[in-house]
Amino acid sequence: MRFKTNLFLLVFAAFLLMGTQGFSQQRKKEGCQGKQGMSQAEKLENAIPDLTDLQKKEIEKIGLDMKKQSLPITNELREKRAHLQTLKTTEPIDQAAIDKEIEEVGKLRTNLAKLREDTRIKIRNVLTDEQKIVFDSKGQGKHKGGGKPDCGHKCNH
Question: What CATH number belongs to 4-139?
Fold first, then answer.
């Protein structure tokens, strides 16, 4: 459960990486580690056509900024989830404390979602109209099965 936030960040990056259907099939053949050695710019080249060096640098900067902003939120979210688990399993059950923690977890998740959307918009603003079409079409397809990639392998995503 604690890796879901990181998973979502990886999924966000993955939608940038997803190329054609052939790329998806190639990934299934290679396993889940097929593209790990590539830089962010190389991954984007596979996903979005005709990126300039300036676009690649700007997208890298946007991604780094997002990671810097999301890390403290993600850490706090992990702490809240752990505390929530403790509250759920401690006798006597304190429903008010559980409800409060759930609300705080919800706020943190909302903040992360807003940050991801802000990042997506910033990346989109760097792209040409043609690139935006590709970017938008890649962003629509989330992984099947609750956010886990459908790669046919048991990987830590």
Answer: 1.20.120
